[in-house]
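Entry 14. Structure prediction run on the chain below.
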Amino acid sequence: MARGTADIVVAGHICLDMIPAFEAAETSLSDLLVPGKLVNVGPLTTATGGPVSNTGLALHRLGFQVRLMGKVGDDVAGRAIVELVSQLDAALAEGMILTTQSTSSYTVVISPPGVDRIFLHCPGANDTFGADDVDYGKLDDARLFHFGYPPLMRRMFIDGGGELSALLRRVKERGLTTSLDMARPDPASEAGRADWRTILSRALPYVDLFLPSFDETLFMLDRARFDQMDDEAEGGDLNSRASGRLLRELADELIEMGAAVVALKLGTQGLYLRTTKDPLRLASAGRCAPAQTEDWADRELLAPCFAVDVVGTTGSGDCTIAGFLGGVLKGLSPEEVMTAAVAVGACNVEKPDATSGIPHWSTVQERLRAGWGRRQVTCALHGWAWDEQEQIWRAG
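Output returned:
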């Protein structure tokens, strides 16, 4: 990547993950975390986490020119984050935001074999990220701006999400295509109690591509239905309980709020797409607006996942977004963008970590041309039709 250039800027939440290795299984965490007990552990694995890292580095591995804009403190964790990013390409870190006013975000992952993981998380500088932190001059050479995880960034969701909408508005004014991803907050947390309908209604007029998950969207727009479906699932897969009707209902509300394109991540069920009927809204979608707006207007598709041996799911949603954004950057059709998204997501889950399974874009395309099989969709798609040639579901 040439210094000073970028196809895409990925901004938002970033942290340092610290994962000590456990050589022997414990019967439970209560046996492990005993006051005064010394627990021998193995080597420490450190990695960057969050969408700035996961989506950004996946795009880099795919071959796109990327600049990262995460906010870190002037401390050991912050320096480690910047160093880990720079090891791949020094230009990736040119947009990182350094503050002396707060510490860096980090997570200690306690994950003994055979025991459910526990996370010790410090939000750090992510909670202080505001619209004024972005160096907007570093956006002028880019075509697309992606922002991730505002529910995990306090300043982005307090006061009705004013900072989030201000940030997206200022980016949109510079002519970039804007993209936004979410995260599902802890229901008992301050973010879980926020008025997300109001926050989204203020932000989405400045969002061209809105890429949350189904469960996050349901949580934010219809908490009562979310709670009911979650109780009925009894800890199972909420995505399998989605239906074409419910997906359209949620997506149409998001489009009515202002988004041009909505893609809802559905885990093992795939990826759902709904787009605006308004060609003028599509034409206003910044530097990556489709050349032929009629190809993208009023579309409703569902792309099933590809069949793979799943090793880990860390960062699978972030990498699916990387594939989607990559397709948009290349000016592909909606069907091709959706296929690219679930293909990159499938590459991700073949490795235990967030991004090492992501190959170059050309390798993904070669795998697609070789006849990669799809998984079966089990959520209710009454009235939908299967397109054998495109390997995708179309709404009737």
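Residues 8-14+51-102+123-394 form a domain with the UDP-N-acetylmuramoyl-L-alanine:D-glutamate ligase fold (CATH 3.40.1190.20).
Filed with the rest of this week's runs.
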